[in-house]
Amino acid sequence: MTSTEQVHIDQPAVEELATTLRGEVIRPGDLGYEQYRRVWNGSIHRHPGLIVRCAGVADVRSAVRFARKHGLLVAVRGGGHSFPGYSVCDGGMVIDLSLMKGIRVDPDGRTARVQAGVVLGDLDRETQEFGLAVTSGIVTHTGVAGLTLGGGIGWMMRKYGLTIDALLSVDVVTADGGFVRAAENHNADLFWGIRGGGGNFGIVTEFEFRLHPLGPNVFAGPVFWPMEDAPKVLEFYRDWIADCPDELMTIVVQRRVLALPMIPPSLVGKHVIAVTACHVGSVEDGERVVRPLKSFGRPLLDLCKPKPYLAHQSMFDPSFPHGWWYYFRACDVAGLSDGVIDVMAEHGSRIVSPVTSVALWQMGGAVARVGEDETAFNGRNTGFTFNINGNSTTGEGFEVERQWARSYWSALAPHHTGVYVNFLMDEGGERVRQAYGSAKYDRLKALKRAYDPDNFFRLNQNIPPT
Ligand code: FAD
User: Residue 424 and residue 435: Cα distance in Å, rounded?
Assistant: First the structure.
């Protein structure tokens, strides 16, 4: 069955399901249907036959059993931010976890229990109350669930590792409606696969994370130069980060400047290259570490300064609102060779849409100190991860942006070393294999055979059991 196949759903049975739930069932025509069928990427429009908005584990298990019994295609929704829109389907059932928002922080034990509908901003808010944080992503409305299951990269990773490296245990509803816990010493095979293998093995209803001390202030923010300066900025940047401390993480951004309150009107629309830094150690150390960047060349604008970590975490939110049309191409590269810099300079200057952008993520540090085989995540030794996104606010002009993103990505092809699975679009099975590498992919396939032999969970970066 494909995501576009329509199925007949037995309505009396749906009504009976609805009476058992703590959450709610939404069908086409119901109030809220239009709202809940939508996902973050506005270019995705699908019409599920049934949306089950789960309030807890019991609802998730009921939904899984119901879908199995009635042969329904199932999409699982955490934060709804899957680039290709895997968390919604046509005709089948969406198991929507977004009502499951519980977070419990243990400040003494430095752990947090987090339900599957939580988004990053909620989690940061609760943990920062105690001067703690989970190493995670960089946009507040991204779902903790999908981000964690694919790996989880962000500002804290070079010091504290990926989000999966902070994961202590998970509660999982399996494809047959069963319920298991997985941790390093309990269902260890499943725990290995969950840490990078996406939603292939079950529905995680709750995550337990280790927390790290952070903030409340960090030294962070972007420094901008004109796009014409890209080659010399990138050459300087390459040398500067070569021996930087793990506390520093940077993202190079190429885009046209958005109209935002802190941006001088004269810069709006200009093509720029920016290095956004975040130093997760002391503010004083951060100021010292970032000083060379701030004084390089003649920046157009410098917004890198002490600020609350929570403010920094929402910095990219205006660039990625719900409902715009988004298309992504992604790849890893080993380093910033002259060839990579040439591609960046050339294609960066060709950006058309004011809402299109490129993010080049600096990897390394603690991410690379975990063994490649310790988790299902692949690419721990990569130098950088590219996220090339061709965006438009509506469908108008979207095709031009898609073409631009493809041509940028293709020009980088000689330098590709891999790809972060959470940054894939719907690119086919071979790309998923490439993302994991053959050996790891085969191990994941065996795990899939053990936990989901019918490929019940297949709307994801799918690892088919056979
Ligand atoms: P969803 O669309 O709800 O889910 C994504 C996938 O996971 C789907 O296949 C879904 O079925 C599955 N899934 C969701 N919840 C569960 C669950 N509880 N159990 C089992 N399967 C589940 N990634 C980073 O690493 N770092 C970043 O900083 C970052 N920033 C981003 C910013 C934006 C604006 C966006 C759109 C994405 C970003 N990403 C980032 C990528 C992100 O990690 C993935 O898009 C991720 O899949 C989003 O998770 P979600 O829960 O919001 O999405």
Answer: 9
Assess whether 73 and 201 both reside in one domain: no
| Helix boundaries (H) for 362-422 | 398-411
Please write the tens of the pLDDT for every residue from 166-187: 999 999 999 999 999 999 999 9
Is 417 inside a domain boundary?
yes
Last residue of a domain, one of 194, 213, 232: 213
What residues contact 396, with CB distance under 8 A and at least 6 apart? none
Tell me: cis bond preceding 216? Omega within 30 of 0 counts.
Answer: yes
State which of 63, 96, 129 marks the end of a domain: 96
Q: Is residue 283 part of a domain?
A: yes
Ligand 1 atom nearest 139 alpha carbon: 32
Q: Residue 120 is part of which domain span?
A: 103-213
pTM: 0.97
Per the structure, the count of domains in the chain is 3
CATH number at residue 123: 3.30.465.10
Strand-pairing partners, residue 355, are: none
What number does the ligand 1 atom closest to the CA of 459 have? 9
- Pick from 422, 432, 457 the residue to mutate for probing ligand 1's pocket: most ligand atoms within 8 Å of its CB: 422
Q: What are the DSSP calls for 136-173, one per residue?
A: --S-TTSBHHHHHHH----TTHHHH--GGGGEEEEEEE
Mutate to test the pocket of ligand 1, among 41, 46, 64, 81 (most ligand atoms within 8 A of CB): 81
3-state secondary structure 273-296: EEEEEEECCCHHHHHHHHHHHHCC
Query: Which residues form ligand 1's pocket by a CB distance below 6 Å?
Result: 40, 75-83, 86-87, 97, 116, 137-139, 142-143, 145-147, 149-154, 198-199, 203-204, 320, 422, 459-460
pLDDT tens digits along 301-329: 999 999 999 999 999 999 999 999 999 99
In three-state secondary structure terms, 301 is strand
CATH, residue 258: 3.40.462.20
Tell me how far the alpha carbon of residue 146 lies from the centroid of ligand 1, in angstroms: 3
Q: 334 with 189, same domain? A: no
